[in-house]
């Protein structure tokens, strides 16, 4: 373990004691970076996804430190891989005794000994670390998680009321609630008996904790994400009771797991050091002769530079968020405070799903929920 100062940033590779898990002691491995200058700084806990080797390191913490934050990035997965092969990692890692993540050989390990359960405890210990640091402003604590780390972030937000804001990059709850969308990252669960699924989901589906969220939350995902289906991400977003923003990237499949710029901009808006992100209401659609009129209202403290509608149309029986036709865009124009666009009317036995995106002159981006023509019960889990 070492510490050094580079370009005004203090960087540490460290290990510290974690909470006891399954009756055994644990050790957390991670990276911590902070500005060198004395002061009180907001703090961030940064969480990797399944691509641990690519995402765990000092790049993220150094980026945040250069932008005036103290950042701790932890390994919450431990020495085992994500495919059940139980291969030792080639980098230093956190240490704890557990059988693995999710399921193997047709049976589940059980939520009480799952890596994700231990991950929640590791994240809470990481926030304890930040709160203990004299240079960290405990009233401004943030969480950024990607992919598996985003799923973990949603669980943590249900139990930690002291987090001011969270960027959830590709994650969701409502894992088994929508027909045909059960799979992706949670695919191993589909291979075990339903009673074992029930036990795991009762503890580790984030939907149970969403009513207790206090943090401002940014949900970032892609229309074509293969791990966290778009309808599940949208339902998670809809149910968050605290402040929330959505950024749904069109024709995107998990490309922004390592993006720190978008979370940083969101955290700055939560503190008021940057303007708030555009707030976009749910769009509406109305038949107008041979066209379908799309409308949306947007509130933005900074002037908007671009507003678009993204839409996808396919035969109703074949429609799928991530397959078939690409999502297409049409520019919107403002008329009497409403942003409007038109697309060809929906034909017989055809399904259209559309949503709006907006970007302001500061570079902040946001998306709306979707409108479906005709009504599409499957899309909303009905």
- Low-pLDDT runs of 5+ residues are 82-86
Gyration radius, rounded: 21 Å
Shape: globular
Oligomeric category: single chain
Helical amount: 10-25%
- The number of helical elements comes to 7
In whole angstroms, the N-to-C terminal distance is 52 Å
SSE ordering: EEEEHHEEEHEHEHEHEHEEEEEEEEEE
Structural class: alpha+beta
Give an overview in words.
By secondary structure, the chain is an alpha+beta fold. It has two domains: 3-271, Alpha/Beta hydrolase fold, catalytic domain (Rossmann fold); 279-380, Sandwich (Immunoglobulin-like), CATH 2.60.40.10. The protein is built from seven helices and 21 strands. It has helices at 52-55, 59-66, 115-132, 148-157, 194-204, 230-239, 261-271, and strands at 3-6, 9-21, 24-35, 41-47, 70-75, 103-104, 107-108, 136-146, 165-169, 216-222, 244-249, 279-280, 284-288, 291-296, 298-299, 304-315, 328-331, 333-335, 338-344, 350-360, 365-373. The chain has a nine-stranded mixed beta sheet, sandwiched between helices. Helix 3 packs across helix 4.
Question: What distinguishing features does this structure have?
Answer:
2 domains; 9-stranded mixed beta sheet; 4-stranded antiparallel beta sheet; alpha+beta; about 375 residues; Immunoglobulin-like; Rossmann fold
């Amino acid at each position: 373990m070492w510490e050094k100062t580079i370009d005004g940033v203090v960087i540490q590779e460290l290990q510290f004691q974690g909470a006891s898990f399954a009756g055994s002691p644990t050790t957390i491995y991670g990276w911590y970076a902070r500005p060198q200058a004395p002061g009180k700084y907001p703090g961030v806990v940064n969480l990797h996804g399944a691509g641990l080797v690519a995402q765990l390191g000092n790049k993220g913490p150094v980026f945040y430190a250069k932008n005036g934050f103290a950042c701790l990035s932890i390994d919450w997965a431990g020495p085992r891989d994500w495919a059940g092969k139980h291969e030792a990692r080639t980098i230093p890692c956190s240490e704890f005794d557990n059988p693995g993540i999710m399921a193997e050989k047709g049976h589940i390990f059980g939520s009480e000994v799952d890596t994700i359960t231990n991950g929640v405890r590791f994240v809470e210990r990481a926030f304890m670390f930040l709160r203990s640091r004299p240079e960290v402003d405990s009233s401004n604590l943030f969480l950024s998680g990607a992919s598996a780390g985003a799923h973990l972030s949603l669980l943590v937000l249900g139990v930690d009321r002291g987090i001011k804001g969270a960027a959830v990059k590709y994650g969701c709850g409502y894992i088994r609630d929508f027909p045909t969308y059960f799979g992706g990252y949670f695919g191993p669960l589909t291979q075990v008996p339903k009673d074992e699924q029930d036990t795991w989901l009762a503890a580790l589906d984030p939907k149970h904790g969403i009513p207790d969220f206090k943090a401002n939350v940014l949900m970032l995902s892609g229309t074509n994400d293969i791990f966290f289906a778009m309808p599940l991400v949208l339902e998670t977003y809809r149910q968050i009771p605290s402040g929330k923003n959505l950024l749904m990237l069109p024709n995107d499949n998990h490309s922004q797991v390592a993006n720190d710029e978008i979370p940083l901009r969101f955290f700055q808006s939560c503190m008021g050091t940057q303007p708030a992100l555009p707030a976009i209401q749910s769009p509406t659609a109305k038949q107008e002769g041979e066209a379908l009129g799309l409308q949306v209202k947007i509130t933005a403290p900074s002037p908007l530079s671009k507003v678009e509608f993204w839409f996808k149309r396919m035969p109703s029986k074949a429609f799928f968020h991530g397959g078939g036709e690409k999502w297409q865009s049409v520019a919107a124009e403002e008329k009497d405070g409403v942003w409007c666009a038109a697309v060809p009317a929906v034909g017989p036995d055809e399904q259209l799903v559309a949503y709006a995106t907006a970007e302001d002159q500061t570079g902040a981006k946001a998306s709306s929920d979707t409108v479906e023509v005709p009504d599409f019960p499957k899309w909303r889990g009905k």
